[in-house]
Amino acid sequence: MANPISHLVRRGLSTSAIRCDLVRTPIPMFGLSGNYAHALYSASVKSKTKDKVATDLVMLRQLLTKQKVSDYMNDPFIPTTKKLDILKEVASKGGMTDTIVNFFGVLAENHRLNLMGDITKIFDRLMCAERGEVPATVTTAQALDAKQRKEIQAALAKFVKANEKVVMTEKVDSSIMGGMIVDIGDEYTNMKYIDMSTSSKIKVYLDLIKQPV
Protein backbone atom coordinates (compact mmCIF):
# COMPACT_ATOMS: atom_id res chain seq x y z
CA MET A 1 0.00 0.00 0.00
CA ALA A 2 1.36 3.43 -0.96
CA ASN A 3 2.53 5.63 1.87
CA PRO A 4 0.24 8.73 1.88
CA ILE A 5 2.86 10.74 3.75
CA SER A 6 5.41 10.01 1.03
CA HIS A 7 2.96 11.28 -1.57
CA LEU A 8 2.42 14.53 0.35
CA VAL A 9 6.11 15.09 0.99
CA ARG A 10 6.95 14.67 -2.68
CA ARG A 11 4.30 17.25 -3.47
CA GLY A 12 5.58 19.51 -0.71
CA LEU A 13 9.07 19.44 -2.18
CA SER A 14 7.84 19.95 -5.73
CA THR A 15 6.59 23.03 -7.58
CA SER A 16 4.29 25.62 -6.03
CA ALA A 17 1.53 24.64 -8.45
CA ILE A 18 1.51 21.09 -7.13
CA ARG A 19 1.88 22.23 -3.52
CA CYS A 20 -1.62 23.70 -3.65
CA ASP A 21 -2.81 20.20 -2.67
CA LEU A 22 -1.29 20.67 0.78
CA VAL A 23 -3.33 22.08 3.64
CA ARG A 24 -2.47 25.72 4.17
CA THR A 25 -0.41 26.41 7.28
CA PRO A 26 -1.29 29.25 9.71
CA ILE A 27 2.12 30.82 9.05
CA PRO A 28 4.31 30.53 5.94
CA MET A 29 6.87 27.74 5.80
CA PHE A 30 10.21 27.89 4.00
CA GLY A 31 13.40 25.88 3.69
CA LEU A 32 13.76 22.11 3.45
CA SER A 33 12.78 21.43 7.07
CA GLY A 34 9.82 23.77 6.65
CA ASN A 35 8.67 21.86 3.57
CA TYR A 36 8.78 18.56 5.44
CA ALA A 37 6.96 20.08 8.43
CA HIS A 38 4.32 21.44 6.04
CA ALA A 39 3.85 18.00 4.49
CA LEU A 40 3.51 16.38 7.92
CA TYR A 41 1.07 19.08 9.03
CA SER A 42 -1.03 18.55 5.91
CA ALA A 43 -1.03 14.77 6.34
CA SER A 44 -1.97 15.04 10.02
CA VAL A 45 -4.87 17.37 9.23
CA LYS A 46 -6.19 15.12 6.46
CA SER A 47 -5.85 12.01 8.63
CA LYS A 48 -7.36 13.85 11.62
CA THR A 49 -4.33 13.01 13.77
CA LYS A 50 -2.92 16.52 14.14
CA ASP A 51 -3.20 16.78 17.94
CA LYS A 52 -1.77 13.28 18.43
CA VAL A 53 1.08 14.03 16.02
CA ALA A 54 1.85 17.21 17.98
CA THR A 55 1.95 15.21 21.23
CA ASP A 56 4.16 12.55 19.65
CA LEU A 57 6.59 15.18 18.39
CA VAL A 58 6.90 16.70 21.87
CA MET A 59 7.95 13.27 23.12
CA LEU A 60 10.38 12.90 20.24
CA ARG A 61 11.83 16.38 20.73
CA GLN A 62 12.53 15.61 24.39
CA LEU A 63 14.37 12.48 23.30
CA LEU A 64 16.42 14.38 20.72
CA THR A 65 17.59 16.89 23.34
CA LYS A 66 19.72 14.12 24.85
CA GLN A 67 23.22 14.58 23.47
CA LYS A 68 23.90 10.89 22.82
CA VAL A 69 20.65 10.50 20.88
CA SER A 70 21.24 13.68 18.90
CA ASP A 71 24.81 12.67 18.03
CA TYR A 72 23.63 9.22 16.94
CA MET A 73 20.89 10.58 14.67
CA ASN A 74 23.26 13.11 13.09
CA ASP A 75 26.16 10.70 12.60
CA PRO A 76 26.57 10.25 8.81
CA PHE A 77 28.47 6.98 9.30
CA ILE A 78 25.56 5.20 10.99
CA PRO A 79 23.29 3.52 8.41
CA THR A 80 19.90 5.13 7.93
CA THR A 81 18.23 1.75 8.39
CA LYS A 82 19.58 1.48 11.95
CA LYS A 83 18.34 4.97 12.79
CA LEU A 84 14.93 4.16 11.36
CA ASP A 85 14.71 0.93 13.36
CA ILE A 86 15.38 2.86 16.58
CA LEU A 87 12.78 5.51 15.73
CA LYS A 88 10.20 2.83 14.96
CA GLU A 89 10.95 1.15 18.28
CA VAL A 90 10.54 4.48 20.09
CA ALA A 91 7.27 5.06 18.22
CA SER A 92 5.98 1.61 19.12
CA LYS A 93 6.83 1.92 22.82
CA GLY A 94 5.42 5.44 22.94
CA GLY A 95 2.20 4.52 21.15
CA MET A 96 2.86 7.05 18.40
CA THR A 97 0.42 7.41 15.52
CA ASP A 98 0.96 5.70 12.16
CA THR A 99 1.30 9.16 10.62
CA ILE A 100 4.54 9.66 12.54
CA VAL A 101 5.83 6.16 11.77
CA ASN A 102 5.17 6.66 8.05
CA PHE A 103 6.85 10.04 8.20
CA PHE A 104 9.98 8.46 9.69
CA GLY A 105 10.02 6.16 6.68
CA VAL A 106 9.84 9.07 4.25
CA LEU A 107 12.69 10.90 5.97
CA ALA A 108 14.79 7.73 5.93
CA GLU A 109 13.99 7.14 2.26
CA ASN A 110 15.20 10.65 1.45
CA HIS A 111 18.18 10.48 3.83
CA ARG A 112 16.80 13.37 5.87
CA LEU A 113 16.49 11.87 9.36
CA ASN A 114 19.01 14.49 10.50
CA LEU A 115 16.27 17.11 9.99
CA MET A 116 13.98 15.51 12.57
CA GLY A 117 14.96 17.92 15.35
CA ASP A 118 14.27 21.00 13.22
CA ILE A 119 11.00 19.56 11.94
CA THR A 120 9.69 18.94 15.47
CA LYS A 121 10.44 22.56 16.41
CA ILE A 122 8.75 23.93 13.30
CA PHE A 123 5.67 21.74 13.79
CA ASP A 124 5.39 23.00 17.37
CA ARG A 125 5.59 26.56 16.04
CA LEU A 126 2.72 25.75 13.66
CA MET A 127 0.57 24.53 16.53
CA CYS A 128 1.37 27.68 18.53
CA ALA A 129 0.35 29.80 15.53
CA GLU A 130 -2.93 27.89 15.30
CA ARG A 131 -3.66 28.86 18.89
CA GLY A 132 -2.92 32.48 18.02
CA GLU A 133 0.26 32.59 20.09
CA VAL A 134 2.85 35.21 19.13
CA PRO A 135 6.33 34.81 20.65
CA ALA A 136 8.00 37.79 22.29
CA THR A 137 11.33 38.10 24.05
CA VAL A 138 11.93 40.79 26.65
CA THR A 139 15.54 41.39 27.68
CA THR A 140 16.27 43.42 30.81
CA ALA A 141 19.36 44.14 32.89
CA GLN A 142 17.70 42.65 35.97
CA ALA A 143 14.95 40.08 36.44
CA LEU A 144 11.40 41.45 36.25
CA ASP A 145 9.17 41.49 39.29
CA ALA A 146 5.50 40.49 39.12
CA LYS A 147 4.24 44.05 38.66
CA GLN A 148 6.69 44.84 35.85
CA ARG A 149 5.87 41.55 34.13
CA LYS A 150 2.15 42.31 34.20
CA GLU A 151 2.64 45.84 32.86
CA ILE A 152 4.87 44.67 30.02
CA GLN A 153 2.47 41.87 29.04
CA ALA A 154 -0.37 44.40 28.90
CA ALA A 155 1.72 46.70 26.71
CA LEU A 156 2.76 43.87 24.36
CA ALA A 157 -0.87 42.82 23.90
CA LYS A 158 -1.43 46.09 21.99
CA PHE A 159 1.02 44.98 19.30
CA VAL A 160 -0.98 41.90 18.25
CA LYS A 161 -4.45 41.24 16.88
CA ALA A 162 -7.47 40.73 19.12
CA ASN A 163 -7.49 36.97 18.47
CA GLU A 164 -3.77 36.62 19.23
CA LYS A 165 -1.92 36.15 22.51
CA VAL A 166 1.65 37.16 23.30
CA VAL A 167 3.77 34.40 24.83
CA MET A 168 6.59 36.22 26.58
CA THR A 169 10.07 34.87 27.24
CA GLU A 170 12.25 36.78 29.69
CA LYS A 171 16.00 37.16 29.42
CA VAL A 172 18.47 38.92 31.70
CA ASP A 173 21.51 40.65 30.17
CA SER A 174 23.41 42.99 32.46
CA SER A 175 25.31 44.47 29.50
CA ILE A 176 22.28 46.54 28.44
CA MET A 177 22.71 48.38 31.78
CA GLY A 178 19.05 49.35 32.11
CA GLY A 179 15.77 49.69 30.23
CA MET A 180 14.77 46.80 27.99
CA ILE A 181 14.93 45.29 24.51
CA VAL A 182 11.76 43.78 23.08
CA ASP A 183 11.50 41.35 20.16
CA ILE A 184 7.96 40.53 19.01
CA GLY A 185 7.46 37.73 16.48
CA ASP A 186 10.04 35.45 14.89
CA GLU A 187 11.41 34.38 11.51
CA TYR A 188 7.96 33.13 10.48
CA THR A 189 6.15 36.39 11.19
CA ASN A 190 6.71 40.12 10.89
CA MET A 191 9.22 40.90 13.62
CA LYS A 192 9.21 44.06 15.69
CA TYR A 193 12.42 45.10 17.43
CA ILE A 194 12.26 47.80 20.09
CA ASP A 195 15.49 48.85 21.78
CA MET A 196 14.87 50.93 24.89
CA SER A 197 18.07 49.91 26.64
CA THR A 198 20.36 52.31 28.44
CA SER A 199 23.35 50.98 26.50
CA SER A 200 21.76 51.92 23.16
CA LYS A 201 21.03 55.45 24.40
CA ILE A 202 24.62 55.85 25.57
CA LYS A 203 25.83 54.72 22.16
CA VAL A 204 23.69 57.39 20.50
CA TYR A 205 25.13 60.05 22.79
CA LEU A 206 28.69 58.83 22.17
CA ASP A 207 28.14 58.92 18.42
CA LEU A 208 26.89 62.49 18.72
CA ILE A 209 29.92 63.49 20.79
CA LYS A 210 32.27 61.98 18.21
CA GLN A 211 30.80 64.06 15.40
CA PRO A 212 32.92 67.07 14.37
CA VAL A 213 31.66 70.46 15.53
Radius of gyration: 22 Å
Tally of contiguous helical segments: 9
Number of beta strands: 4
Give the CA-CA distance, first to last residue.
79 Å
Total number of domains = 2
- In spatial order, strands of the major sheet run 2-1-3-4
Draw up the topology in text:
Elements: H1 4-12, H2 31-46, H3 50-64, H4 67-74, H5 80-94, H6 98-109, H7 116-130, E1 133-140, H8 146-156, E2 165-172, E3 180-184, E4 192-195, H9 198-210
Parallel strand pairs: 1-2
Antiparallel strand pairs: 1-3, 3-4
Helix pairs in contact: 1-2, 1-6, 2-7, 3-7, 5-6
Describe the structure.
GO terms for molecular function: proton-transporting ATP synthase activity, rotational mechanism. Its main location: membrane. It is found in: Membrane. It comes from Phallusia mammillata. Belongs to the ATPase delta chain family. The protein has 213 residues and is an alpha+beta fold. It folds into two domains: 126 residues, no CATH class; 79 residues, no CATH class. It contains nine helices and four strands; from the N terminus they run αααααααβαβββα. Strands 2-1-3-4 form a four-stranded mixed beta sheet. α1 packs across α2. It is elongated, with a radius of gyration of 22 Å. The chain starts with a helix and ends with a helix. About 4% of the residues have low confidence.
Q: Which terms summarize this structure?
A:
single chain; about 210 residues; alpha+beta; four-stranded mixed β-sheet; elongated; ATPase_OSCP/dsu; ion transport; membrane; ATP synthesis; proton-transporting ATP synthase activity, rotational mechanism
Q: Could you write a compact summary of the structure shown?
A:
With 213 residues, the chain is of the alpha+beta class.
